Amino acid sequence: MSERLDSDETPNFSRPGEATVAARHRIPQAESLPDTAYQIVHDEIMLDGNSRLNLATFVGTWMDDEAKKLYEDSFDKNMIDKDEYPQTAAIEDNCWRMLANLWNAPDAATAIGTSTIGSSEACMLGGLAFKRRWQQARRAAGKDTSSPNLVMSSAVQVCWEKFCNYFDVEPRFVPISEEHKTLDGHGLEQYIDENTIGVVAIMGVTYTGMYEPVDEIAKALDAIQAKTGLDIPIHVDGASGAMIAPFLQPDTVWDFRLERVHSISTSGHKYGLVYPGLGWVVWREAQWLPDDLVFKVSYLGGEMPTFALNFSRPGAQVLLQYYAFLRLGIDGYTAVQQASQDVAKFLSAGIAKIGAFELWNDGSDIPVFAWRLKAGHTKNWNLYHLQDRLRMKGWLVPAYPMPDDLADLTVQRIVVRNGLSMDLAEDLLEAIQTETAYLDALESPMPVEGQHPGFHH
Ligand SMILES: *Cc1c(COP(=O)(O)O)cnc(C)c1O
Q1: Which one of 191, 202, 355, 432 has the fewest beta carbons within 10 angstroms of its own beta carbon?
Q2: Is 321 close to ligand 1, i.e. is its CB under 6 Å away?
Q3: Where are the stretches annotated Disordered (predicted)?
Q4: Is 316 a domain residue?
Q5: What pLDDT does residue 49 have?
Q6: Is any atom of ligand 1 closer than 6 Å to the C-beta of 267?
């Protein structure tokens, strides 16, 4: 019998490359046909979840066909090559100026902003601007700069813990509780001192989807300033909410209408409705971004300022954001976000009717809500069991503990994104009803070994 060759004629799955286990940790010596390699990788990722059924993530999993075409046209563009791609660079500027206006900057012409790889990088840049500004003011006054601190809720996203860790800033966490479900300005003075570089306010806490009342936090800081003279700025981490509130809650005052808000960040790839990874950060006035953090890259024979942790980064997502802004406009974004909120409220109302549960919130801030088991409902099962039962049907609906002071409390959460239709939501609600009834019918406890949270913040 002749030796089987890796050839176009050899049927798929009987070629040498596909008839053996692919190399895992060493680059193979020999080449394979492109479609052989393609088939192997394609098949391995079949075991990944279906992203549209993943209700744990905030990150976009659907765009229309024109966006896909534009992505294909532009996935070779490097955002840092402003000289080679001046048009992409100009579009990046258009986008953050659009956001400065959307977030009510007093004058978008004197604001400053940039795209980033996501909210994490955007938050780090916001935090770095705070730290540098504080250092400069302290040095100018001949004061010590060795122990900066940043004040925030205990329910912050992990990027803020990273910022504090990587850049040597003491994190001061204000614990959330049943009475104070978010950072709301209550007792803030205990955490603030002359070494506080700023306060983080979250528009759309990842644990629950609730807004922090930025105006209340600003008022508390006004009172602190009146008493102590300390002028503490706010960075709004609007990873999800900065792209919801302008459309669904235009009267909520959380943005640059508050003078104390120096900077706002968001994830273009969450409710900005773009595929990962894209973030944005905007400063209300260029003066709040210290000059000595800004580097220059060449651009059309001149220089262009940049402030980023990365150097090379895909430019395509920036173009997709511009596409989404042009395609949807304010009316379109409002319609899309409203549709998501309608689905969130439909689901939260349905879940509230199931006797086993109690809502933590109902999705009326961002289209995200969480619930818990009613106290004393059962000893036979917990929300991790429901998470597992739903997973068997393809749905990812994570259960996890709340942060520190509430860590004994387990909640389960749904993030409604563009693409979770009312029709799919009806199927999901039915699955939750069916699986809850199954668990409630148990006559003895489910095992609890090996249970683990379905989401990390
Ligand atoms: C998602 C999220 C982040 C991190 O954003 P990435 O874009 O994933 O880097 C930060 N803060 C909040 C409140 C978030 O929801």
Answers
A1: 355
A2: no
A3: 1-22
A4: yes
A5: 84
A6: yes
